[in-house]
C-alpha cells in the first residue's frame, strides 16, 4: 500500500497528523465516561443525551450560519481552527470552576446541567474549528489521493482515541477525575497544544507550491458544478441522516448496558477494553479502506461498512462476556470508520471548491447527529418508555433498542442504494 502526498508535503502532513492525534486523545479521555458521570449527576437516560444534542444544535448553527461562510469568503481555514481550539481551552476551565462550585453546594443536578449548558454554549464557537478542518483537509488533497490521506489521518485519530480511552479507564476513577478537575486540566493543555500545532501548519503551508492544488481545485469546481452532483450530494446527506441516527441512537445506551448489573456488568477497565477494541478495529480499517476506495470506488466500500453497521447491534444482546463483546464492538468500529473515512472522501469529491465551508458545514451537521440527538430523540426515549411505561427490565429494553438501531440503519442503506448509488453510476457512465 502506497499513500502519496503530492499536494500536502511531508511537513504539513506531519503537523496535521499531530493535530489529529491530540484531538482524539483528548476526546477519548474526556468523553469515554462523560455519559456515565452525567448519569450519576442526573439519573435519567434521556437527560444524559442532552450534552450531545445541544452541542449538535449549537455546532450546526455556528457552521451553517457563520463559520462556513467565513471559511469560503476569506479562505481562513487554519485561523478558524486556531481560534476555535483556544476559545475551547478557556471555556473548559470556566465550565469546570462552575461545575465544581455547584458540587460543593451539593447541587448535583445543577452541576450536571452546568457541564451540559457550558459545553453546548462553547460549541457554537468551537464549531469554527470543525468546518475549518474539513475545508482545509479537502483543500490540500486531490480526488486520487483523498481517500488514502483521510484514511491515514483517521488511523492516527483511532490510535489517539485508543490511547485516550486507555487512560480514561484510570483517570475516571468513579467520577473523581471530573470532580477533582484532573481530566479537565489535561484536556485544556491539549487544546492549547493543538492550537500551536495548527499555527505551525499554517506557516508551513504558505511555503508550499500550490500550483497542483489550484489546478485540482479548478477541475473539481468544474466537475462539482454539475446539477447531477448536487442531486447526489442532497441524497447522500438524506441517507446519511437516517444511517447516523440509526447507528448512533444506541451510543449512550450501549455504555449504560456495559455498566448495568443485568447487562454485561463490566468494570471501568473492562469497559475501556471494549471501547478500545472498537477503536482498534476502526484504526486498522481506516488505514486500508481509504486507499481501497481510491482504487475500487467509494460506493463499494461504503456498502461494506453499512452491512456491518446493520449486523453488529444485533449481536450485543447475546454477548455475555467481555471478550466476545469486544469482538462484536470491534466490528462496529470497522463499520463506523469505514463510513467516516470513505464518506468524507466521497463528499470532498462532489463539493465545489468555492462552497466547501458551507457544504461541509452541512455534512458536519449530519455527522453531529451522533453526538447526542440520536440518543435524545430515539435511543433514550425508547429505553425510558419501555421501562417506565411497559415495565420491561432495563437490560431487556437496552437490547430491544439495539434491534431498532439495526432496522433504522437498514432503511438508510436502502435509500443510499436506490438514490446515491444509482445516481453515481449514471454520472460515471455519462
SS-derived structural category: mainly alpha
| Mean of residue pLDDT values | 87
Q: Strand percentage, roughly? A: under 5%
Per DSSP E runs of 2 or more residues, the count of β-strands stands at: 0
- CATH overall fold name: Growth Hormone, Chain: A
The shape, in one word, is globular
CATH architecture: Up-down Bundle
| First and last CA, distance | 31 Å
Treating each run of at least 4 consecutive H or I residues as one helix, how many helices? 18
Biggest sheet, in brief? Answer: none
Task: Please explain how this structure is put together.
The chain has one domain (10-424): MFS general substrate transporter like domains (Growth Hormone, Chain: A), CATH 1.20.1250. By secondary structure, it is mainly alpha-helical. The chain has helices at 10-31, 34-41, 45-48, 50-74, 77-104, 108-139, 146-171, 176-179, 182-205, 211-224, 227-248, 251-259, 268-296, 298-311, 322-350, 356-367, 373-389, 394-429. It starts with 9 loop residues before the first helix and ends with a helix. The relative contact order is 0.16. The chain has 18 helices and no strands.
Amino acid at each position: 500500500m502506497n499513500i502519496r502526498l503530492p499536494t500536502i508535503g511531508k511537513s504539513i502532513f506531519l503537523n496535521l497528523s499531530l493535530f489529529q492525534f491530540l484531538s482524539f486523545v483528548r476526546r477519548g479521555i474526556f468523553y469515554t465516561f462523560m455519559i456515565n458521570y452525567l448519569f450519576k449527576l442526573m439519573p435519567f437516560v434521556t437527560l444524559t443525551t442532552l450534552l450531545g444534542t445541544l452541542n449538535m444544535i449549537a455546532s450546526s448553527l455556528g457552521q451553517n450560519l457563520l463559520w462556513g461562510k467565513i471559511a469560503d469568503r476569506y479562505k481562513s481555514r487554519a485561523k478558524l481552527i486556531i481560534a476555535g481550539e483556544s476559545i475551547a481551552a478557556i471555556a473548559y476551565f470556566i465550565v469546570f470552576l462552575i461545575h465544581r462550585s455547584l458540587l460543593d453546594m451539593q447541587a448535583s443536578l445543577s452541576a450536571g446541567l452546568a457541564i451540559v449548558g457550558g459545553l453546548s454554549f462553547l460549541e457554537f464557537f468551537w464549531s469554527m474549528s470543525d468546518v475549518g478542518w474539513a475545508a482545509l483537509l479537502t483543500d490540500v488533497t486531490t480526488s486520487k489521493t483523498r481517500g488514502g490521506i483521510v484514511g491515514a489521518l483517521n488511523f492516527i485519530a483511532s490510535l489517539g482515541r485508543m490511547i485516550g480511552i486507555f487512560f480514561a479507564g484510570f483517570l475516571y476513577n468513579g467520577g473523581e477525575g471530573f470532580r477533582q478537575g484532573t481530566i479537565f486540566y489535561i484536556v485544556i493543555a491539549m487544546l492549547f497544544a493543538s492550537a500551536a500545532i495548527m499555527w505551525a501548519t499554517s506557516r508551513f503551508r504558505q511555503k508550499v507550491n500550490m500550483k497542483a492544488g489550484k489546478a485540482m481545485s479548478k477541475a473539481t469546481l468544474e466537475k462539482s458544478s454539475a446539477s447531477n452532483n448536487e442531486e447526489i450530494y442532497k441524497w447522500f446527506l438524506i441517507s446519511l441522516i437516517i444511517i447516523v441516527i440509526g447507528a448512533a441512537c444506541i451510543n449512550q445506551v450501549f455504555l449504560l448496558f456495559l455498566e448495568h448489573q443485568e447487562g454485561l456488568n463490566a468494570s471501568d477497565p473492562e469497559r475501556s477494553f471494549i471501547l478500545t477494541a472498537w477503536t482498534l478495529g476502526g484504526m486498522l480499517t481506516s488505514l486500508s479502506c481509504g486507499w481501497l476506495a481510491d482504487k475500487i470506488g467509494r460506493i463499494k466500500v461504503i456498502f461494506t461498512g453499512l452491512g456491518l453497521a446493520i449486523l453488529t447491534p444485533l449481536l450485543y444482546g447475546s454477548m455475555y462476556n467481555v471478550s466476545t463483546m469486544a469482538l462484536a464492538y470491534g466490528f462496529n468500529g470497522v463499520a463506523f470508520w469505514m463510513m467516516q473515512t470513505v464518506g468524507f472522501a466521497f463528499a470532498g469529491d462532489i463539493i465545489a471548491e468555492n462552497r466547501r465551508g458551507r457544504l461541509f458545514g452541512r455534512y458536519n451537521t449530519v455527522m453531529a447527529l451522533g453526538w447526542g440527538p440520536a440518543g435524545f430523540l430515539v435511543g433514550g426515549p425508547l429505553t425510558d418508555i419501555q421501562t417506565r411505561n411497559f415495565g420491561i427490565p432495563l437490560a431487556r429494553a437496552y437490547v430491544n433498542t439495539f434491534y431498532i438501531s439495526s432496522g433504522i440503519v437498514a432503511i438508510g442503506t436502502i435509500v443510499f442504494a436506490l438514490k446515491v448509488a444509482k445516481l453515481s453510476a449514471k454520472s460515471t457512465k455519462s
